[in-house]
Amino acid sequence: EPEQVVGDAAGAQSVIIRDAMGIVVVLAPWNFPADEILLLTLPALVAGNTVIVKPSEVAPLTGAHVVTALQSVLPPGVVQVVQGDGAVGAALVNGPIDMVAMTGSSATGRKIMAACSRDLKRLVLELGGKDPMVVFADADLPKAAHDAVYFSLFNCGQVCCSVERVYVEESIRAQFEELVVAEARKHVVGDGRDEASTVGPMVSKMQRDIVEDQVNDALASGARLLYRSDLPAGGREGNFFPVHVLADVGKDMKLNCCETFGPVVAMTTFSGSEAEAVALANGTEYGLASYVYTQDAAKAHRVATRIRAGQVGVNCYSLFHANLRCPWVGHKGSGFGFHSGMDGWRQFSLPKSLVFDIPAPEQVTARL
C-alpha cells in the first residue's frame, strides 16, 4: 500500500512506499534486558524485517525468554536468538545483515559503527550518558534532593540516563547538601530479595571496581565525602557497593568526566547564572538526558532548549515520564537513532518513490 500519493509532476504519477530493511540485528544490554529487546525488535518486525537478537552475555536467559515468547506467535525464522560474547556480536555485525540496532556503551558503539561503515549498513545506537541535573535556588529543594538521590541510585545507578552530575546553585549549597544526605540515609544496600533493600548489588565485580576507582580518584583530588552507607554482611564478597554522596567534584575528576554506572551522588556548585548552568551541563562528550529544577517555567525553557541532550526533564525524571509518542534519542557521543515515537518506528524501513508514466494501479488511484 502506498504511504503517500504525491500527485502529478510533468504528467507522471508519483507514489511513496516503504521497504523493509531486511535482516536486523538487535544487540541488547544487560541493565534492561527485556525492555530494550522489545523497544527495538517490535518496530523492526512491524516494518517487515526479520530479526536476530543477541542478548547480553551477562543476562542471556531473559533475552531467550523474550524471544521464545515472540516466536510463539510469529512464523518460523522471523525472529531468532543467538547467544554469546562480544566475538559473537562482531560476527553478526560483520555478517550478511542489513541493519544493526544496539543499546550499550559508547566504546562498543564506536566499534560497531566502524564495522558497519565498510558496507554502509544502517545503524541505531543508543549509547552512554553523563547526565547532569541543574538545581536553581528557586527550585522545590526537598523534591530536587529526593530526585537527585533516587535517580542516582535507581537500578544501582546502572542506567544510561541516571543523574550522574548534580550542579547546585552556590547560595543553597549547605541546605541542599543536608537534604541530599538525609535522602541518601533512607536507602539500604542489600539483597534484592529483602524488602528492606533499596539498592542491590552491581552487575559484576569489574563494574564495582570501576565505580570504586572513580570515587577514590575524586576523594584523592579534593572532593568531600558527605555520606557513605553500610554494606550488608559479607557485602565485599559480592558485588555490593556503598551509596556515596560527594561534594566539590571537580570538572577534571573521573567521577565528573566518565560514565559512572553506580550508586553515587556527585555534586558541585555553580553561581546561579543560566549561561554557566548550560555550559556545565554541556561540558561532556555525551548528550542523552539532562534535568533542570526550578519553579520558573520561562527559565526552565531557556535552559532546557540550550542543553544539548535528547531528553530534558524539568522537575522530573524523563525516563519515568517518557511518552511513547516522543522519540528517545541521543545527541553527541550518546548515539543516534530513536526509541519510540514515529521516528522510532519509521527508522526500520526505507522510503521508495514509484513514478508511473502509465495509468497508476487501483491501490494508488483509490488514494487520490
TL;DR?
With 368 residues, the protein is α/β, with parallel strands linked by helices. The protein has helices at 35-46, 60-71, 86-93, 106-117, 141-153, 173-184, 205-220, 254-257, 274-281, 297-306, 341-346, 362-365; strands spanning 4-9, 12-20, 23-27, 50-54, 79-81, 99-103, 122-126, 131-135, 163-169, 224-228, 244-247, 264-270, 286-287, 289-293, 311-314, 328-329, 331-332, 335-336, 338-339, 349-356.
Give the averaged pLDDT, no decimals: 94
Spatial order of the strands forming the largest sheet: 10-11-12-9-8-14-15
Number of helices: 12
CATH first level of the largest domain: Alpha Beta
- The unreliable regions are none
Structural class from helices and strands? Answer: alpha/beta
What distance separates the N and C termini? 13 Å
Query: Which percent range describes the beta-strand content?
Result: 25-35%
